[in-house]
Design brief:
Helix content: 25-40%
Distance between the termini: 53 Å
Number of strands: 16
Number of helices: 13
Number of domains: 2
CATH superfamily of the largest domain: Alkaline Phosphatase, subunit A
Structural class: alpha/beta
Bound molecules: calcium ion
CATH topology of the largest domain: Alkaline Phosphatase, subunit A
């Protein structure tokens, strides 16, 4: 590395469970996210950024390690990270970066699971609290006052302010919001009071024309939201469709109020960078650990390989390299983030990392042979929301999902195998994924091609094909 080249600072802002379709730059008609949009308008928006496993802890492990979950060992919410493996923070730290993580960690505590590769870390224990959150800060418990999104931003700005100005920095600013149970702060508590949030096209999905996994899932707006989620008892006279709509409004308004606070705080951080004259030399990313169902298919939550949960918002600004107001449709994954940051820092990407840097895509040049398909796997068979374990691939036009529906002795799964089933969606004709065409004779050739591609990708990433237990 040429020591004379000034290396960029990197600020990675990640929220929890924020779906792209709740951001105005991704076309949300409901809420406005001016500060997230500001990153996109001054940089690039990725429209096909996907996670390799749509659940918190595994996605976070993938982002840190640049590897898939069967490699980094964090397949489920019950797994903890083994911090002895290579991570992006360690490599940046070893190569002269000052490093910090503030906010949600959710990869376990104690032993080898505390954050490693960070000069400073102040993380929420487990899920953390929305109000007056405690932090585990370099092994000490620290109490704070205020709303979690504000506190995480304050701590992040304080750390930037007090850094050694002779070195570049890497900051992971990880918000807890807008995670369930979606508790907004006082400032945003009355937003959207006077409007009705439109219901999505698939709000009344009856789960016909699909494998049985969709109907078996327990994440329905009308049936599965609890009083803790809703905060107030529904009016006694409501029932059926009217009650479902009422619950949806309660859920979505609180969710979007939490997002509004994240957006305000991103604005505060961006303003601080301007004020300190750091904006030009600092890469700023905003993303979320996976997507979320916002009433789509009648659901809340994530886990499924369906678009709303598979897709991550991803906007990035770096005025020196990334053209303002640009959009990419190339397929990038959470496993690519670590290689991307190492690339920007001029550090050799270790062979063991499985993702690829997409720095050239961000600067407006697509490399030859960029991926046209991606591999996904959700391991937590029947856990919590009763989603069946599955793996699959998404290409530009199709999605093939195999519900192997078996715990395979995986921690955090339930040992109650279901009959394996397949789904195929033609995303061009059926972007909402309502019609499984796996058994349609017109798609016989597509099924054959995609099944081969699934096998190939599975081998490429080193995962194992499902074999029923004897
Ligand atoms: Ca999450």
């Amino acid at each position: 590395m040429n020591a004379n080249v000034k290396r960029p600072n990197i600020i990675f802002i990640m929220s929890d469970d924020h779906a792209a379709h709740a951001m105005s730059c991704y076309g949300s008609k409901v809420n406005v996210t001016p500060n997230m949009d500001r990153i996109a308008n001054e940089g690039m928006r990725f429209d096909h950024c996907f996670c390799t496993n749509a659940i918190c802890t595994p996605s976070r492990a993938t982002i840190l390690t640049g590897t898939y979950n069967h490699v980094n060992g964090v397949k489920t919410l019950s797994d903890r990270i083994d911090g002895r493996q290579i991570t992006v923070s360690k490599l940046l730290q070893q190569n002269g970066y000052q490093t910090a993580i503030v906010g949600k960690w959710h990869l376990g505590h104690g032993g080898y699971s505390d954050p490693t590769g960070f000069d400073y870390w102040s993380v929420l224990p487990g899920q953390g609290s929305y109000f007056d959150p405690s932090f585990i800060e370099m092994n000490q418990t620290v109490k704070t006052e205020g709303y979690v999104t504000d506190v995480i931003t304050d701590k992040s700005i304080d750390w930037i302010r007090n850094r050694d100005k002779d070195k570049p920095f890497f900051l992971m600013c990880h918000h807890k919001a807008p995670h369930r149970p979606w508790i907004p702060d006082e400032k945003h508590a009355h937003l959207y009071e006077d409007i009705d949030i439109p219901e999505p096209e698939t709000f009344n999905d009856d789960y016909s024309n699909r494998a049985s996994a969709a109907s078996a899932a327990e994440m329905r707006i009308d049936r599965d939201l609890t009083l803790t989620d809703l905060k107030v008892e529904p009016p006694a006279h409501l029932e059926g469709a009217a009650l479902k709509s009422w619950k949806y409004q309660r859920y979505m308004k609180d969710y979007l109020r939490c997002v509004a606070s994240v957006d305000d705080n991103i604005g505060r951080l961006l303003d601080y960078l301007e004020q300190e004259d750091l904006a030009q030399e600092t890469i700023v990313v905003y993303t979320s650990d996976q997507g979320f169902f916002l009433g789509d298919h009648g659901w809340y939550d994530k886990r499924f390989m369906y678009e709303e949960s598979l897709r991550m918002p991803f906007v990035i600004r770096y005025p020196k390299e990334i053209p303002a107001g640009s959009v990419s449709n190339d397929m990038v994954l959470n496993v690519d983030f670590a290689p991307l940051f190492l690339d920007y820092a001029g550090i050799t990407i270790p062979e063991s990392m499985q993702g690829q840097s997409f720095r050239s895509i961000a600067s407006g040049q697509k490399p030859v042979n960029w991926r046209t398909s991606m591999y996904y796997r959700y391991w937590m068979h029947l856990s919590e929301h009763k989603v069946y374990a599955h793996y699959g691939i998404r290409t530009e036009q199709f999605k093939l999902i195999f519900y192997y529906a078996d715990a395979l002795n995986t921690l955090g799964s339930e040992d109650e195998p279901k009959t394996p089933e397949w789904e195929l969606f033609d995303l061009k004709k059926d972007p909402c994924e309502m019609i499984n065409v796996y058994h349609d004779p017109d798609y016989e050739r597509v099924v054959a091609l995609l099944t081969r591609e699934l096998d190939r990708l599975q081998q490429e990433v080193g995962d194992e094909k499902y074999v029923p237990s004897a």
